[in-house]
Predict the 3D structure of the following.
Amino acid sequence: MKKQWWLNKAVELQHRLWREHGISLKTKVEVYRAVVLTTILFGSECWTLYRRHIKQLEQFHTRCLRKIAGIRWQDRVSNTRVLEMCGISGIEAFLLQSQFHWVGHIVKMPDFRMLKQAFFGQLASGCRLQGGPVRRYKDSLKINLQACDLAPSVLRTAPLDRSVWRQCCLNAISAFEERRTAALVAKRKARKDPVAARGTMMWTCDVCGRPCASCIGLFAHCKSHR
């Protein structure tokens, strides 16, 4: 019943808002941010995610934005271009912001609070399983801090001042999103034009003059002329 209710709401949004030409794209994106993102990311500050989970959320995010902006797959528009057109960041930036803000609240809590004791506590005995243990929340937080060029020691003092911590998170996440976008653009460029990405044209076919990105690629291409 609950799943059917969500499907009905999704159909209503699609017919009454996403396909409405009289509403600006900015307004549609703001409604998407307020309704869809807040629902799909509810409780995300406590999630322990792997890369495959973030990839699935990113796919859902870009698929929704493409539908809102009226972009079809035949248009061959990259995901970075879709985010730029809609004026919104990737889903990972929202996850980082949610987690960092929640950790800031935990650090500011009094020491007698059970949540803070569980966050900073350590087991007196016992060991984890070998061969790839399950990722903990602390492990996920450490990975995210390193991705944003933040040292784990910053959690000791920075969250005590809310304005300083929020500005620090905002700057770090903005820099992370810029690096992520630049990496995706470079990766797409390398995939579309490997020769230009390498900056060299060392392997050129003697028959048709086609440039190849590697020696083995030239060898495979020369087979087509036999």
The two ends are 63 Å apart (CA to CA). Residues 118 and 125 are 15 Å apart (CA to CA). The beta strands are 203-204, 211-212.
